[in-house]
TrEMBL record, chains A, B:
InterPro entries: A-glucoronidase_C_sf, GH, Glyco_hydro_67_aGlcAse, Glyco_hydro_67_aGlcAse_N, Glyco_hydro_67_C, Glyco_hydro_67_cat, Hex-like_dom2. GO terms for cellular component: extracellular region. Residues 26-146 form the Alpha glucuronidase N-terminal domain. GO terms for molecular function: alpha-glucuronidase activity; xylan alpha-1,2-glucuronosidase activity. One of its GO terms (biological process) is xylan catabolic process. Homodimer. This is Xylan alpha-1,2-glucuronidase. It comes from Salinimicrobium profundisediminis. It comes from the Bacteria. It catalyses: Hydrolysis of (1->2)-alpha-D-(4-O-methyl)glucuronosyl links in the main chain of hardwood xylans. Pfam families: Glyco_hydro_67C, Glyco_hydro_67M, Glyco_hydro_67N. Keywords: Carbohydrate metabolism, Glycosidase, Hydrolase, Polysaccharide degradation, Xylan degradation.
Length: 721, 721
């Protein structure tokens, strides 16, 4: 059979998206458009590409268009030297010919500096599709959007889209160590091959930048917040520069974590006191050294006086003192400082959930203009479900940026299919009421609630050397979804799931309907089989793998699960009401009042705010114990449904990704049962009530579950050893 | 342009082997055969595949044939239900129809149990190609060989090949830790994803097995010799079983490293004394437990009483006592024990190079039949060049297996292009003279010198999660070459290089000639720019990255480079003659005599055996100092030639692998200069002679080179922290 015949034969029996693949291409898969009329229509609409202007970012946009066109049409994209019928015109506002602009003036009023316009217009009498923006970055985003429209098989003949990011700083936080281990990383080694930099530029670096640019991520913090000062030495700055040079073309700035004690470790000062002139000078000089190599360096992310990290408190100075000193060092270069509010102290007897608020809110308004305070979504630590962090809305005169965790430290590592945008959306939509109803967390983050000049959002990356980047094929959806919500915190997570599925797997409606529903339900499933009804932080300690509600022997009280569930013969849950730690006082009314009473507290936060009797009768007339058991059982059954759903999808998915997901779902099911059995057996000792009949008899006894040890569970970096 | 036209167009401008690729396919690349007559000829010769017998290994062979045929001809391999003209017949001797055998009787006398026969014969009047063997493993090897003939584009119409492995145990040693770091690993994380086993079977596991089977490797030791007893717990045995189940079909047995103190750590005994009945019983039970899950488990590899590892000496017992105890535990299951001879003690004031011999040779003949003593190629530790280990030939009544290091711990990590088979060949060809001339190391290893029943060879793997498995594209050649030499320790390393290049990159003669020469020269280049003239172990300590001849502050004397070069105002080198440590007494005559005099010692071993005056006049009439400088300079120039050679190969190699190799060669050149400058500046202090004019002025002064620190150099596993 001739090669030509063979290809036709192959394509006949096997759509390209069924060819086995390792998932490396993420959502940037440009399958041939097989539907003839659509194919015809698209190619008619793209008669000749013509670009105005020049520069690395424009080149990146053009090269992406070439890739996509070659994938869609198995041919090189036609180019034009002048605008003719159905040309595709690319250029920023400043670079477009004057006669193109008139019909776009209206659109330009709708976009900001990173926004874009994609519009089919008439230039004179010539119809053409224009992609334009104020900046080259916007142009790149518009190009990816135009390609996406074709990936989704949307009509483009009358295309008219304007869009702009609602948040300025959209960054990934890599908790990557310089030895290439990744703290809380479950997708292999760090993709940053420091040893071979600056000489060796890996293709992964470019594809990482393409993927991020395609969803609008415009910054990356390369190093772990538990930082090493070595990254600030000149040898490493040269390595960082090599990465910055790659990412620049894709509109991505590079940031580093700054270890507060660096002047003593990487420099040779006696102190790191932010009030010490030599220390200030050291940071100024260091910033100058970095910016000399990387003119568009983004700035620093700092974890200070938290979990053993050094910080200004070591010298009796405040977080403001520390943050402002660094801010002054980078300010001349338009750099920023992202200062984490994730602080809590074993010396503070107060409820851990209250400490960040107590420590930071008094400083509202005292941080320099180029400082962002980075706050985790919840007051404890990236749990399957937490109420929103009370700092959101509580510091009107300080730019707060959101920190989400994309890597699944507390949500099943890279083994569990959990669609996180559903959780991100829940947090962003929560109403802080600080300025009355409608004061959502999203409005705090995008700055609209109190007119912030500087806004930002960060996601702790789930990326590693795994061939498919994230380990779990569906982990890619969390990276993708974070980017989409960073661009626009108001989009529906369902839309995001559908877009991702269509671009990543298949456009078949049955597949997309079934699997998007599975994804959307997956978040509640993990809450149910791990920490339902407001339970939190009862996972095993250190590695956070599996259940460990019984752990109570760690030095720091707030590192022990027993600290969080407080189970006893009377009941279970953390009383954070006025009769307890009164953490709810950190929320605005009417939330305070609502959470202060068991009756009005939403069941999903019940044990977060209340210590509830085991026999407390809940809305459904059943006891708390019965409901807790029911939730755990429900979680297991929801995973069983996910297994069933996926097993029916074989016809839509390539062999490798289908089988991998299928095997991983078996791990998820096994671990969901493990959670149910271990936690219920543990709490049963306190409730002294029988397991409801709908819960299968646990496979093992409590002693067995308590005896399990996982010395090599992934994601623990040397900084915790 | 239609898809069909486009493909033809694409193929016209771009042979498949130029399509950019990440190197994941290794040497198993089945490009379409574009040469029309050859294509015609091959397909005529393969009219219909017919197999006799059944089993997983036969299935593996068939599936490989299908892959290869689809790649060569873009079509499915034709099958036949009975032998017809030009059938391809596959089956073991026992399974082939009786009427096929007569014309093969002669061949069967030439092969052993793992050997194979590939022969074009007439069955009755029907010409057919038969691939047969005594065992299914042999059948698989024959299949890969048949495919290789087509990869090399050799004629197959009169094919007649018989081949058998000359060594029985051909294993890779993975120094992989259970936390997925790899000791002395420079290709990323461990490919063993322990956390997701046994459920998640990655495609890499199967492709790893295919690659090994294709070169005849029949065993893999999954874990680091600096071992964790956790791998012997039942939870991990279940994980190991999952891998064994994958590898079994490819004729690969799984082995584990046994930490000698496991009965105390993984069990709860008070002691690990090999004479303690409970300890013996613990190991017997553990072996039974493993074999119940993995009936063909290979056995244990043990590093005992070496570099801090526990062992029988801790209890006043000998290596024989320890090895035999473990041997008794696995003997009932036909398991073996590989006991490493890599021992040296800081308490032994004697020359480290002598210690292994002194400790093991007295035990010759006392090890059980299922014990192999595993000896490194040289008496120190995988240096760029060492004389062969004196134990080879010195224990006629003990099976000695060779341990080569494929990972480049002392040879430039994964940054340097160094073709190791050239070095392996040098060692195997060395003459021990123990039974007169011709008593080569190869003959010791393959057992022919003293009729060993059990023979083996091990290679410390250079494999990791790097997309191309080995990091450096040419690192694959070292994995491939080790396998080829393990199968036949007498093949020419040049032939291996040419085979690998043709299967991996291009069959173009100009390319193969140029690049194979570059590969063959690369080993001498690294010796020249790192440790010429018999210098050894002068690299920086701990991570072994870069030069560190000045290091002399480590507690253990034999961990200090100064211990090995002994430079002083009089000269440089380690006197191992009768006037010195007399290490040469461990070699047979005439080597002893030859090495005892400076004049008769080959220059490549000069400073290994002698402390030589700086002004000693060498064969070329120049001083030692002049010659040392010349060697370092030559090494740098040889790398410059490699750079030039590779730059001319762009037309033959795909973009990704070409660019990656080009960038890595720049690192190699930079580091070669670093070595030259740092070492010469250091020794210059002692020689008090000027650098010859042909050596460029060093870029920095000695203090600079001595100040360099690499806290995050790769390959140091936690066991060294």
């Amino acid at each position: 059979m001739s090669k030509c015949l063979y290809f036709i034969f192959l394509l006949a029996i096997l759509p390209l998206n069924l060819r086995s693949q390792d998932g490396y291409d993420l959502w940037l898969q440009y399958y041939p458009i097989e539907e003839a009329t659509l194919r015809e229509n698209y190619s008619t609409q793209i008669q000749g590409l013509i670009t105005y202007g020049s520069g690395a970012t424009l080149d990146a946009a053009v090269s992406e268009l070439e890739k996509a066109y070659a994938g869609f049409f198995d041919a090189s994209i036609p180019t034009a030297i002048s605008i003719k019928e159905n040309s595709l015109v690319l250029g920023t506002r400043d670079n477009l010919p004057a006669y193109v602009l008139p019909s776009l003036e209206g659109e330009f009023t709708k976009i900001n500096s990173e926004g874009y316009i994609i519009k089919k217009i008439r230039i004179g009498n010539t119809p053409a599709t224009v992609i334009t923006a104020e900046t080259e970055a916007g142009l790149l985003y518009g190009t990816f959007r135009f390609i996406k429209e074709m990936q989704l098989r949307n009509a483009i003949d009358k295309i008219s889209i304007t869009d702009s990011p609602k948040i300025q700083i959209r960054v990934l936080n890599h908790w990557d160590n310089l030895d290439r281990t990744v703290e809380r990383g479950y997708a292999g080694f760090s993709i940053w091959d420091w040893h071979h930099l600056p000489e060796l530029i890996k293709p992964e670096y470019i594809d990482y930048a393409r993927a991020n640019a395609s969803i609008g991520i415009n910054g990356t913090v390369l190093t772990n917040v538990n930082a090493s000062s070595v990254v600030l030495t000149s040898a490493y700055i040269e390595k960082v520069k090599a990465l910055a040079d790659v990412f620049r073309s894709y509109g991505i700035k590079v940031y580093l974590t700054a270890r507060f004690s660096s002047p003593m470790e990487s420099g040779d000062l006696e102190t790191a006191d932010p009030f010490d002139p030599e220390v200030k000078q050291w940071w100024k000089d260091k910033a100058d050294e970095i910016y000399a190599e990387i003119p568009d360096f983004g700035g620093f992310l700092v974890k200070a006086n938290s979990e053993g990290q050094p910080g200004p408190n070591n010298y009796g100075r405040s977080h403001v003192d520390g943050a402002n000193m660094l801010a002054e060092a980078v300010a001349p270069h338009n750099g920023i400082v992202m200062w984490r509010a994730f602080v809590y102290s074993e010396h503070d007897p107060d409820d851990r959930a209250k400490q960040a608020y107590s420590e930071f809110v008094p400083f509202d308004g005292q941080f320099h203009d180029n400082v962002l305070v980075q706050v985790k979504n919840g007051p404890i630590d990236f749990q399957p479900r937490e109420p929103f962090h009370p700092m959101f809305g509580a510091m009107p005169d300080t730019p707060l940026m959101m920190e989400f965790q994309i890597t699944q430290e507390y949500l099943g590592f890279s083994s569990h299919l959990v669609y996180l945008p559903k959780m991100f959306e829940e947090v962003l939509d929560e109403d802080t009421y600080v300025q009355g109803e409608g004061s959502t967390v999203a409005k705090v983050i995008d700055g609209t609630l109190s007119n912030k000049k500087l806004t930002g959002i960060a996601g702790v990356a789930n990326i590693g050397t795994a061939k498919n980047w994230t380990g779990h094929p569906f982990g890619q959806a969390n990276w993708y979804g974070f980017g989409r919500l960073a661009w626009d915190p108001y989009i529906d997570s369902e839309e995001i799931a559908e877009d991702w599925l269509k671009m990543t797997f298949s456009k078949d409606k049955d597949f997309v309907d079934e699997v998007s529903e599975m994804m959307l339900d997956s978040r509640e499933a993990v809450v149910n089989y791990m920490t339902p009804l407001g339970l939190h932080h009862i996972m095993d300690t250190g590695h956070h793998y599996g259940p460990g509600p019984w752990v109570g022997n760690l030095d720091r009280p707030e590192w022990n699960p027993v600290y969080y569930h407080r189970a006893d013969s009377l009941g279970v849950g953390f009383d954070r009401t006025t009769t307890g730690s009164n953490a709810l006082a950190q929320y605005a009314e009417p939330l305070r009042e609502k959470y202060n009473s068991i009756e009005t507290t939403p069941e999903q936060y019940l044990l977060w705010f209340h210590h509830v009797p085991w026999d407390y009768e809940m809305k459904n007339g059943k006891t708390l114990w019965h409901n807790m058991a029911a939730k755990y059982q429900q979680g297991v059954e929801e995973v069983e449904d996910m297994v069933k759903t996926w097993n029916e999808m074989e016809e839509y998915v390539d062999e490798e990704r289908f089988a991998t997901t299928q095997m991983l779902l078996q791990i998820q099911l096994k671990e969901a049962k493990w959670w149910r059995d271990a936690v219920l057996l543990y709490f049963k000792q306190f409730s002294e009530m029988e397991l409801p009949e709908f819960v299968p008899t646990p496979e093992h006894d409590l002693e067995y579950y308590q005896s399990l040890e996982f010395p090599y569970a992934p994601g623990i970096s040397p900084s915790w050893h």
